[in-house]
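Re: the request from the purification team.
They wanted to know what the chain is likely to look like in 3D before they choose a buffer screen. I agreed to run a prediction and write the result into the notebook, where they can find it.
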Amino acid sequence: MEEYLKACLNLTKKAGESGLEIDRICEVNKQESSVNLNIINNGPEIFFNIEEDLGAQFKKLEVLISEKLKGDRLKKLEYIDLRFGEKVYYK
């Protein structure tokens, strides 16, 4: 469970450096090696794979937000899934 705590702290730090604020940690799923969080109040759940490079996953999130999810589009999403290599899924 220690690696999940480290992942959560690392993601919180990266969010702060990017000007994003983590609203809450939704779930730590040991079976799927994932951590789910919300970066904005009532915003989408964001899925990270802690067995992969969290920095690269967070960079994909930053690019997605800055290029495709400007304004209120981010708040309207249900989830953003960064767990699958170079692919990013969102709904």
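For the purification team: The chain has a mean pLDDT of 83.
Please add any questions underneath this entry.
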